[in-house]
Write a structure and sequence with these properties.
- The protein folds into two domains: 29 residues; 96 residues, no CATH class.
- The protein has four helices and no strands.
- The longest helix is centred in the first third of the chain and has 21 residues.
- It binds heme C (2 copies).
- The site of one heme C (HEC) has 25 residues, from helix 2 and helix 3.
- InterPro entries: Multihaem_cyt_PRC_cyt_su-like, Multihaem_cyt_sf, Photosyn_RC_cyt_c-su.
- Keywords: Electron transport, Heme, Iron, Metal-binding, Photosynthesis, Signal, Transport.
- GO terms for molecular function: electron transfer activity; heme binding; iron ion binding.
């Protein structure tokens, strides 16, 4: 029994290596994608990350391990060390859930990456802040 599991594991590894070689475009799969499809094209990941920074009014280092001002090539984007990154993942799931809800009016559409097509995205609530406001801004016009 033990032997057959080991053989299965070796077989699976060999298959994975063969599959990776057969599809070289998959060589640059995301290292630690838990919400996104690991094969999400690089330009879609970049656009999404820009959406995150704009929506929250932050820079990459708010969620990712790296020195502010240092080249992005020195960052460890796959690391989950920062709580903000882990929180952002939950937020991606929440945003998806809202867009998938049939309580939301409009044309059904829900995507983790096509933020400009979603009816609700990170900007909807965050408006450039890490903590969405629950009160009106000072300069809001009187409702009545
Ligand atoms: C609000 C938090 C947040 C900000 C700001 C942010 N990211 Fe991310 N980033 C994430 C999360 C969450 C993931 C992982 C998504 C998943 O698990 O599917 C991620 C994943 C990535 C990955 C893929 C890592 C891998 O697993 O291979 C790259 C590259 C990346 N981010 C680059 C950036 C860059 C560049 C910036 C700045 C322009 C940035 N991020 C800003 C939250 C953030
Ligand atoms: C439906 C509204 C809503 C949407 C959509 C939303 N958020 Fe949030 N987000 C919140 C609320 C509310 C909090 C909690 C604020 C607090 O604790 O005061 C929060 C907190 C966060 C935090 C933690 C901030 C902190 O200071 O602890 C991060 C990071 C975050 N959101 C990222 C995102 C990202 C990235 C997206 C888009 C994928 C997103 N959020 C979409 C409502 C939203």
């Amino acid at each position: 029994m033990k032997r057959s599991i080991a053989a299965l594991a070796i077989g699976a590894t060999a298959f994975a290596v063969a599959a990776a070689n057969a599809h070289p475009e998959h060589a640059d799969r995301l290292a630690n994608a838990q919400v996104l499809d690991p094969h999400t094209p690089k330009e879609d990941v970049t656009a999404l990350m820009k959406h995150f920074t704009q929506a929250l009014g932050v820079r990459c280092s708010y969620c990712h391990v790296g020195e502010e001002g240092a080249p992005l090539s020195t960052y460890d984007f796959a690391s989950d060390a920062k709580a903000e990154k882990r929180r952002a993942r939950e937020m991606m799931r929440l945003t998806m859930m809202i867009n998938e809800s049939d309580m939301l009016p409009g044309e059904p559409f829900a995507s983790h990456t096509a933020m400009d097509r979603n009816r609700v995205n990170c900007i909807t609530c965050h408006q450039g802040n890490t903590r969405p406001a629950t009160t009106l801004p000072e300069d809001a016009p009187d409702a009545l």
